[in-house]
Amino acid sequence: MAAPPSASAGASAEALRTFSFFDLERVSDVHDLANSPEILRNATDISTVVSSAAGLLVADTHGSIHLLKPDFSPITSWIAHVNGRVTHMVERDGILITVGDEDGVRASLLKVWELAKIDQRTGAPNLLRSTKVQPGNRPHPVSSIALSSSMSYLALGFGDGTVLLYRHLDQSLFSSSSSLSALPKPRTIHESPTDPITGLGFREPDPIHDTAATVNGSGAVGTGTGASPNLHLFIVTTGGVWACHVSGRGSGGASAIVDEVGCGLGCATMDWYRRNVVIARDESIYSCGIQGRENSYAYEGQKTLITPHLNYIIVVTPPSPPPRGLSARQDNISESTRVTVVDLENKIAAYSGTFSEGVREVFSAWGHIYVLANDGQLSSLKEKPTTEKLSMLYQRSLYPLALDVARTQRLDASHVADIHRQYGDYLYLKGDFDGAMHEFVQTIGQLQPSYVIRKFLDAQRIHNLTTYLQELHTLGLANADHTTLLLNTYTKLKDASRLDAFIKSEVRRSSAKEGGGGGGRGDGEEELPFDLDTVIRVCRQAGYYEHAAYLARKYERHEDYLRVQIEDAGNFGEALVYLRRLGAEAAESNLARYGRAMLNSLPEETTQLLIDLCTVSGPLVPAEEDEKTSGPTRQQTTGASYLAYLALKGPAAAPATTVGDDTAVPPSPSAKTVQAKLSDSPTQTAEPSRTSTPVPGGNAPAPAAPAPPPPRAKRPSPCLYFAHFVDHTAYFITFLETVAHRRWGQSVDAPSISATATVSPSTSTMVMADADGTAAAADEDVERRDQVAVWNTLLELYLDIPAALADSGGGGGGADTDAQGGAGAREKALRVLQSASLPYDPTHALILCTSARFTPGLVLLWERAGMHEDVLRFWIDRHNAGGDDANGHASAEVVRALEAYGAERPGLYALVLRFLTSSAELLTRHKADVERILEHIERERIMPPLGVVQVLSRNGVASVGLVKEWLLRRIKQSREEINTDQQLINSYRLETKTKQRQVEELSDPEHPKVFHVTKCSSCNGQLDLPSIHFMCNHSYHQRCLFGHDNECPTCAKQHEVVQEIRRNNERLADQHELFLSEVRENGFQAVAAGYGRGLLNLTRLDDVSTM
């Protein structure tokens, strides 16, 4: 053995804690349960044991190799070295390499076997290669062997300190060469004549395990060559440890010393990551990397063997020092030997047990550790389940060690989190709340946050709760409730600085991600570690309006921002400016919600914003701010007024000023100049984005290349904002008048603007400018309905303004002022009704005028609707009601209306005649009018005399003398008409009797017809034979008829006229609508004419022809 290490090395070693993670079980033969497996009973004959993918390989001192099943029954056996012994074996991917001695051969023999193929002649695996290995002229035994995982490199260590390296072994084995000795020429890479080779191991270039390697305090492996992709070979001697660069850049050089402390034979092995070499000495166990010694573990006592098993190192300790010599393994040791299973990563001894008969071999196979005693007894060390091992650690409160074990066992995240939870509970019960919170933070993502939150809801532990909640948000696993709780902790602590840091720092982080990714606002918002809606809500509830507004503005939560500024902070000015910056679409939806509140606070500015929103299709802010908006989606509105739902009886919100001539408006800065803008439009400059129709006659230069116009942005319907103007009648009138003027070019002062009128650039998106036909029919229909709704509402507002009734006297000065204002408004209402171009609903206007008792409007609407009788009855009712007809105004209006409408509606004369003769006063006042009416009735024959008499005789007001002359004239005319009619009747009767006699004569077969005609009725020539005589007393030459032998040509023309008349009457009989229209005009005359023409009793010509 090498000399002991320095004192400093021993002092830095870490002691191992002992546990019982393995259970010892005795292994019996499958056929003889009382004894150990048959092949292993003679333990002294076992030379080496190796686990392989094909099974367990057991070599004996007789040169044979046995391949065993998991129950240790043999699969196959063969003699590998005749009359010799197998000293070393190594297997990779079904390729077995053995080193052994044979009689008659001085040097050791290296043989390569292919386990998957069996030689049919010998029954042994296929022998690929067989050659002698000898470093020099004198043979030396092979003391160690190592094979890389890819089988590219094979290293052999000898007792004289020499190391041979075979390169590209895999290529040689699978080449086409059939020579058994065709192996690459070995290269001597290390020589140490005084120190024999006791161990070899390849450091594999596996980058997956780079970070898992054990690192010393300076982090040499991690920062040095720990991530090197090159292959290195560790060479262990009794005097030190060397590392040789085998493959990769810089390979081929001499080996470099890693540690000056070596070990005995069998006391060196690679760790389970195959990254570091582990050497066992009497005072400690060391781990060495290619940069030097890394870790040491205090474990005193002599060691005869170490071998790896998964993440463990199995250490065999003899009861007493072995005899001095090269080999520490002796066959005659029969005293108690200790086997320890060490977990170097976690610095624990997972098992420690003694074997009284000594240990012959220790090997790892099928996931278990097997210990072969010198007496042939085979024992198995089976690892306990991880849960059981963790329970043992929990009982001793070794939670940090349990975490290390869980990571080594590669448990999933849920199991590791459960250990952190138990550790946190343990620290919580001990009162270490900071430490407990540190552990609970590690459970985020696996443990329900409510489990931790309930523990730290106490006010004294609110700081720990804040830490946990912050980490939840950092990992993006917080929900709305967690955000609420975190913000409540900030507000409860009055910690505005941490609240700022939480909100604004996260915003900056999100913005940075957004800028880097280029994903846009939506991507940045998705990266937020908190629920934005919840943060805004909690900040509002806690009174941190500035923070809530900051987040809402930053992430374009327009509704939240306006809700904070209007409902919470009351910053109506800020909200108004923000709405202008939003553009039409967002402003439309938000004003529909907050318009009323803003009108109550800033009526002038809000009214102007609503006007701009409904009339301007471009940005709502100055052009230099370059804020673009998108066109909103419009909703169709009906033309009905919305004021039926509003209470507009309150006082006006502000004193009114004027726009144009006499329009009452509030003192809005932009509303004052509406008329000026409309008149001075040629001098104004408008951006192309804010106009869609050029101003005719303007001086703007024409563009060089005409660009296609941008799509027209739809403007919201003014009807959306009607409800906001409750108790703001004056501003409502201003809004409606300005919108109608700027949007459609309609005004009560100038209602007859043509459809091609030119307006200022601010109104360039009017529907009138759509005369080119580019606007869709649906949009035009919506605009038309909006116009109707606006003018219906304006008409209602005009009529709703308080005013003294026209027929009642005024009182004090205040009443006179109201009467003047009301009279002006009603004058506007009358102008609206008189306009032929303003689009209001006549039916709705009629209801409004009736409710407001606006007589001029009512009469005007009745006249336009053709309701002439209603006009007359209105004035009649007005007269009958009295009070306002002291001077006969109502009765005069009745006579005037009769003169106006009587020509079209003759039936009105009877109504007026009945009215004028209803009282002596009326008859006295309108006696001349009554006489004119009677003359008109007589002239136009509107009423029969009896009807006039009945009208006048219903009361005792009219005397017989009033109508005496009229009656005499009517009676005389009637007698003359009777005489004339009687004479016509007599003539018709005489003609009828004559026709009847002729019919009887013609139809009597017993009285023949004698023809006395001597001349032809066609040529007037003397009749001669052949001639044809007709019953109508017409005779013709046969030659003059031209084939018309059946019908008299003379009478046929008359008959054709009669038949044509009957055909026309027959066609008219099917035209029911025409007949009904005649009945509506004069029913009796139409029915009588129908009977006269035979329309109602017509016999079809077809029926006549069939008779």
UniProtKB/TrEMBL annotation:
Residues 670-694 have a biased composition (Polar residues). It is a peripheral membrane protein. Its EC number is 2.3.2.27. Residues 655-714 are annotated as: Disordered. One of its GO terms (cellular component) is HOPS complex. Gene3D superfamilies: YVTN repeat-like/Quinoprotein amine dehydrogenase. It holds the Pfam family zf-C3H2C3. Component of the homotypic vacuole fusion and vacuole protein sorting (HOPS) complex. Component of the class C core vacuole/endosome tethering (CORVET) complex. This is E3 ubiquitin-protein ligase PEP5. The lineage of its organism: Eukaryota, Fungi, Dikarya, Basidiomycota, Agaricomycotina.
